[in-house]
Amino acid sequence: MIDLNADKRPPMSTPPVVSPEAWQAAHGQMLEKEKAMTRARDALAAERRRMPWMAVDKGYEFIGPQGKASLLDLFEGRRQLIVYRAFFEPGVHGWPDHACIGCSLGADQVSNLAHLHARDTTLAYASRAPQADIARLKARMGWQHIPWYTITDGFDKDFDVDEWHGHNAFIRDGNCIFRTYFINGRGDEAMGTVWSYLDMTALGRQELWEDSPQGYPQSRPYKWWNWNDSYVPGASVDPEWDAVSEAGEAAFRNKKTEAS
Fold this sequence. Notes:
Strand order of the largest sheet: 1-8-7-4-5-6-2-3
Strand content: 15-25%
Number of strands: 8
Largest sheet: 8 strands, mixed
């Protein structure tokens, strides 16, 4: 038995130590559960894409680095928008040096936004702090890549984030805006990756394998991926990456066939 309490921590009941064969068998059993969870997550995302939309009829005003901005402006010309309500304002623990500890942990998880943008989706943060304080916070914490706006009206109350953090997803049809989904509480723990953001949107990952309503934009998986500094709208797939991803897909399919 391995002594994990040598540094005088409280006694800890550990699992058994087994052979590589026994470990692989145990892992195989867990893997089946992992796959079931992944399939369930995909099914949930498919249901999200069929959620009814709520029209946003009220005009909301934010303040950004360039001055006044509407909710439509927050889309930055893209089709979808995710707004995270972060608590950074007088009365919040950490003010004025820091934002809420939980919201700050979430901001640290936000991945490079170029990949979201390639799927016509914008992520923005919103708080009630003035822009000067937001700019100072972003510089201190390394969050310059996150668009961050000041809430000036009842946006937070209207979208269920006046007392607690949360992500609201929107889609636009021209200048018409619709609320499509909302995640808060422990659901926010999973946010930060391109996949977690896209899975909460009305259009999803926009890949052919997804169960989406007819007419939704979809393309082959892997093909739209690129380095974060190399996305060019409408550009053809890099031929080398096309070959590599094709080989990878083929190998994966063969492995699944052999396993079955």
